[in-house]
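Table 4 source record.
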Amino acid sequence: MKRQILALLAALALCAVTPAMAETAQGVAYGVYSQAGESPDSLIRVTLTCEDGQITDAQIDEKLIPVSNGGAEGWAELTEDMQAALGEAVLSEGGKAYPQRFALDGVVFTGTQDEQGGVVYTGQVNGEDVALMDYICTDEGGAWYFACEKAELLDEAGETAAEVEIGTKASIEHGVAFWPSELKFPGNIERICAYLVEHGAAYEAADIAQGEDGTWAVADVTTGATLAGTPNYLLIAKEAYQKAIAE
């Protein structure tokens, strides 16, 4: 009996000194370049892993979008062969050609030219007409779009005339072959992620500013990134962090 009591006391003592398990949570947010003077060229996904409210890992992924006016090329821009396959089901805008319709995971999106001279694709999702770029910035739409690997380009009869892969900035090595600094595009993303892990996401949009040397800082702490779109990534990351700590 004495031996059992001693074993019980030892077990209780061990429990007293064993640290509590850290609470792990993950937050995911989607968005696009939305700062003045910038044009979206991808759907940005920021994934943050947090332990007890502290960011322990940050990942930024970017899925290419159908139409882009700068940066990475839109996957819906047609080659001459694709135009020939689509026949009359082609839209021309800004010296480029786009499919009038395409299907993603069974959902058909139809393009129209807006007043600003761009092409906007809309389709019916969950019984409602939605603009593709608006829908994929939501949690549901972003997760759905990241799972789409190919788009079917539809001809006048609504039949599949061609297929295109929907890549990512990583898959096309965006900003690697050419970049105005040795940091290159992937290096900028790595520095933004490193900043988030080291310093967290407790900042506001007004705290983000670019110095005379072109490097972005948050308050008085430099991120090391020179990428023009750095504020976009940081603000989407802040949203992901808020989702993580709300779990």
